[in-house]
Input
Amino acid sequence: MQQLKARATETQRKTRIQVENEEKILDAALEEFSVHGFRGATIDRIATHAGMSKPNLLYYFRRKQDIYEALIARLLDTWLEPLRELDAVGDPLPELRSYIRRKLEMARDFPRESRLFANEMLQGAPRIKRLLETELKPLVDEKAEVLKGWMKAGRINPVDPRHLIFSIWSTTQHYADFDVQVQVILGPDRGAEGRFEDAARYLETLFLDGLRPKAGSAADAPRIRTL
Amino acid sequence: MQQLKARATETQRKTRIQVENEEKILDAALEEFSVHGFRGATIDRIATHAGMSKPNLLYYFRRKQDIYEALIARLLDTWLEPLRELDAVGDPLPELRSYIRRKLEMARDFPRESRLFANEMLQGAPRIKRLLETELKPLVDEKAEVLKGWMKAGRINPVDPRHLIFSIWSTTQHYADFDVQVQVILGPDRGAEGRFEDAARYLETLFLDGLRPKAGSAADAPRIRTL
DNA sequence: TTAGACTTTTATCAAACAGTCAAGATTTCG
DNA sequence: CGAAATCTTGACTGTTTGATAAAAGTCTAA
Output
């Protein structure tokens, strides 16, 4: 252990075993923390799931909190990548459409990461609040300006850009975080891939056109002055 | 304690003290479980927060799980009330508009309940999956039919009704479950009430009209064939 | 007012938990 | 190879946790 520390002050070249085991541990920890949160997770279970003894695990990460923090550190970057790609120069609607799709893909491909993030939020983000302020907020501010620009140019409807971002986050992450509920309600008929495509199609319609039928659509008669 | 059990088999008339203390306990437990989940919560903290000793608390609820279950039992009913009120006979858009508003009000007025529910979902709903199947699913099925009817009549745009419901749930509950994040991003300028009104206004626009600008709006020129 | 029902506390327990230590096993590399 | 570095383990520590038992205290209704 003292070697680990000594090396850390140098260039910290990692052993094969070190790389493998840290990966195993982080994977098992993600499984555990994403479901039970920080307090609900136990080192014992993480170690078992990672296929090693508890002291061995603690050789790589000295405290429970270190594992959690390692997990969180790599999370936020990945998590914000789709938003970073939102391009001010592109066409607004296709840009938004593909942002939504990228977020939905993340919910499909990294549900555990999504749940870990959700868990941290539910707890009031005690361990990443600062990161939210220094990394998340500036990015959102920047992209909110992009959206505002599009609105001023009349290229998308004028709405609060931050709330727009919230709604994209929440609708897409819902499929990871509330997966059980989604499955109960949709039934087992459609597989995961089918559900994904349905969700993508639905969200596209919602965000682009909303629910109000086009003026001049078929059965327009019965409505008086909707809303 | 044996008296408590004996009474339970009879008509279970509750003492004044019993009523008061159970209420105190459930309130403290909601606070604790909604943040830390089932495993992360401890009886000690719940007892302290309820202002009583741990054995005293356990006199009213014999096991940790009993408290959690009492909480969950009263939750789902309240939680589904807004959807129950969705009226097949009413006008579609105003009905949806007020459903969204009711859900948003619940997120504002019962954020702890929302987080408790979210926490249970994140864990895979081990304790209420059955309830979801017997209570939630039939209700959603019923309301999905209502929505389908409106779509067939051309009164709202045709979309997958279940995904529509998901998106209403996720966007509204987001304001309770991810409250920290929302506050970090929106800044402290607007108080809770202001944020609520902004969210309500935004969601109304989103769900009714989406982001695509009305045909014939001001700066239509630059777009080619959006999406 | 007092017996019996109800409530609270003190003391206690076994299991689970985060974390340590030193000794033994294995790998790496000159 | 063989020694140094790295890795793994078993045994252990102090604390927290969920839960119980019994006794002491309080309330309430006849």
Residues 28 and 49 of chain A are 6 Å apart (CA to CA). The two ends of chain A are 67 Å apart (CA to CA). Chain A has eleven helices and no strands.
